[in-house]
Every structure is written in C-alpha cells, then in structure tokens.
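Risk register update: the risk of archive-format incompatibility is retired. Evidence:
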Amino acid sequence: MQHKKLIFTTLLLIISALLLSPATPAVADAAPPEAPPGASLLPGEEITQVRMEAETVTMKLAADGESARVEAVFHMRNLGSAEEHMQARFPLSFWDGRSDGYFNCPEIEDLRVFVDGQETPTTRLEGEPRQDCDNTPLPWAGFDVTFPPGEEVILEVTYTQRTFGYEPYFVLGYVLETGAGWKGTIGSADIIVEMPYEATPGNVLLSGHAGYGGTTPGAALDGRQVRWHFEDLEPTAEDNIRLLFVSPPYWQKIADAQQNVEKYPKDGEMWGILGLAYKRVIRVRNWLRSDDGAYALYRQAVEAYDKAVTLDSRDADWHFGYAELLWLGYTSYGAGMEDERADFDSPGALQRALEELAAALALKPDHEKAIALIDEIMWYGDWAGGALIEEKAGGGYEFPALTITPTPRPTRTPWPTSTPTPGAEFTPTPNE
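Archived output:
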C-alpha cells in the first residue's frame, strides 16, 4: 500500500510540475497575447551627463482590470558643465522588438509628454526592423528637451496601457531597465499601482504564478496600493515590474457573496455561491494556486462549501462543487503529503471529496460534471494502482476507498425561505 501511495504521489507531482511550468509568449497556444508595458524614458543616442534623480510612476488600474492609466514623472538633472539638447525617446511597443507572442505588435495609447509642466509635441520615430512583426520598424515617440547645466528639469509622460492574461488573472507591466541609458544610477524609483479594491495576498499574487510569470519581488501592499521602491538603482531586466493580480470583477463577486452570507447566514445557497466565488479566484485551469494568499482562500472556500452542503443538503450541485474543490486541493497541494501552509490534511480531504461526490450522485445519478470528475479520479486511481472509484456492473459507481457509504444529510429548510437573487452576472452555472 505504501508503495502504491508513493507511486501515486510521484505521478501527481510530475503532472503538477508540467502544468505549472511557466508559459512563454513564444508559445502561442500556452500564453495569452501580451500587452506592451510602459517604460522609463531613454536619452538620445549620444552619451549624456543627465541623470535621472527620481522616477515616480503611478498606474491606476481600471475597474475591469483590463487597462491602466499611467502617469510617470521624472526628475532630471544635468551634472555636466554644458547645456544638452536632445531628442529623448519613449517606446510605443515592446521596446526590445519582440511581439505579443502571436506575431502582433500592439502599441500603448494616448501618449502625452510634458516638460516642466508644458505639453510638448512628439514625433513618431522608427527603429530597427522587427522580425516578429513582418520586419516593420520598432516605433518610438521622440520629443525635444533641453537640459541646462545644474538645473532640474521635470518630465512627465501619461498614457493608457493594456493588461494581459486569462481571467481571473491579469498582468500589468512596466520596464525600468530602459532608464539605464542616463548617467549613473536612478537616484530613487517609486512604482505605484492603485487597485480598485484593497490589495491583499488573496488578490495580488506576491509569490507563485498563474502560468505566465509572477509579481516582481519586493512589492509592498498598502491599502489599495501595491508599491515598489528602489534607491540608487542601476536597472536591469530583473528589475522590470510585473504585477499579477485577480481580475476586479472576480474579486467583487467574493465581496458581494460575503454580504449575502452576512444577511442570510442560514441559507445554504448563499454559502455555496461564496464557496464558488473563492474557488474561481484560486483555480488555474485544473489546479489551484500555490501561494499564501491562495491557501487562506482555500480554507475559506472549504468552510463555505461545508456550510452549503449542511444547510442545503438536497442540492447535488453544492455536493459536487465541494468534491471538486477538495479534489483540486488534494492534487494541487501534494497527494499523500501534508502542506503546513495550507493546514492541509490530504487523506482527510480525499475521503471527504469522495463522500461529497457519492452524495451528489445519490441525489442526481446523471450529474454530468460529477461523472466527468469521477472519470478523472478513476484515471488517477489507475495510475496509482489502486481504485478509488469503480463502475458497477449494472450501472452506477462504487467507492471502495470509503469505509462507509455516505447518505445525504437530512433536509433542512433554508432560512429565510425567501432569499435574494444575486445579480445576473453572478448567478452560478449548474453543477459547480
């Protein structure tokens, strides 16, 4: 038995490792089309004595999470003895010449430039040909600026930038390494993302990734802001900013469901909707996120589903939803092992998952999603060398891994009998 358990554990870990391998934009069927990030200004082509003494970038995320309005302010000072006049540059697409991963080359929008508070016209410049973009030239916005010796000049750039990703996760980026072209180091750099909701480890992934890169290390959460701060920075590619976050509409569904639960704490459907909302923001395809914020949300999802199947025990959908959550937790957080961060009891979770799945089928033998989950579990069991579920000769299923065949809990009438209907955008689909 221990040998089978070890084989099962090893196979699950191999599968998880393959699924969790970071996707790259070059693989069009594995990664979303990437949006070009904003970037620090670049000087002209000549060697310059102008230093970027401070850089503050504020990125205000839209309510739908699909774009951000960016304001970047640069405090520049000419450390030389002669006046410098140059055409500074700002990249309008991927500054290194690549594509979005699908051979498209989108550009940022609504670029405006100000020098010491006065708007300055920009000129579209053409750089090196891009192989991924039919050899079209890399586009830049150029603008003329003069730096008197010893004086501060304040440059401001505003634009609209798109995020990218697959729901419920999006990525917002900003390139710092282009600032290395100025003299010396960047004296200080503050990158601030303003979220539409309070930033927490549940909705900002501070560790791990969702298939296409994670958040740049060093991020601090402060109310609705995510912040990075650097001193005397000589920026490289490792310093470029990426923020991986939960789509605001998905996070709002959790808040809405929490309010309904507070109003109607004895209504099983309200608890089921809350559990489903939690599950949706920690699920990445067929596994669960592996970060501290996700572990906390997983525990909350388990509690919500447990309430749902207790208060609304005759609803097969909630039994299935609970079973699916526990199975995802079992396969994601280490089959046959303990995960202290998640307070995760693998054997107990597997046992309860099978109980809830059996309860769902007892209530609705033709439950399509439950049967699909059974097929998956049976496949895992075949790999492990031990059956968790078996088909009956006359139809239906047996659960040899269960010591006692579960029966649905006695029906409890939800209270109040008249419950509010969630908004149409939040009504759960059947069998979740």
